[in-house]
Amino acid sequence: MTDVVDPATRSRMMSGIGGRNTKPEIVVRKALFAAGFRFRLHRKDLPGRPDVVLPGRRVAVFVHGCFWHAHPGCRYAKVPASRREFWEAKLAANVERDRRAIDALLSSGWRVLVVWECATRSAELREALPELLRRWIDGPEVSGEFCSDSTLP
């Protein structure tokens, strides 16, 4: 199926989609701050440019939108019915790019946490997020993820 708008219009529309300082990212940053952590944002020198970095602890945190990063099994990650082939290819490429970035960070000795957008949506999970983050950062896990199914403390 061809696009319904010309390439210049599509480019302008897509450029309006924010990639930084999203609401879920700000929720995670506030939770980290409330848990007593200080951090850096969007380190360009690291693979995948993590959303939040705790350099002293070698922890990289990605805040993934459930749709844009194709969160498996999430109700917010439905592929649109129109232009399905385009979206499936686009989202698969996003997932592959995420995997490569995470693998590169892990092989460089970083610990990596993915916080899915759905983990920031409910008030109950937002309230528990500082404690969940503190436990993970202080724990031994090398990689992990939080989503709406995460166990509350």
TrEMBL record:
Belongs to the vsr family. It comes from Azonexus fungiphilus. Its EC number is 3.1.-.-. Keywords: DNA damage, DNA repair, Endonuclease, Hydrolase, Nuclease. The lineage of its organism: Bacteria, Pseudomonadati, Pseudomonadota, Betaproteobacteria, Rhodocyclales. The keyword DNA repair applies. SUPFAM superfamilies: Restriction endonuclease-like. Gene3D superfamilies: VSR Endonuclease. The keyword Cell membrane does not apply. GO terms for molecular function: endonuclease activity; hydrolase activity. May nick specific sequences that contain T:G mispairs resulting from m5C-deamination. This is Very short patch repair endonuclease. One of its GO terms (biological process) is mismatch repair. It comes from the Bacteria. It holds the Pfam family Vsr.
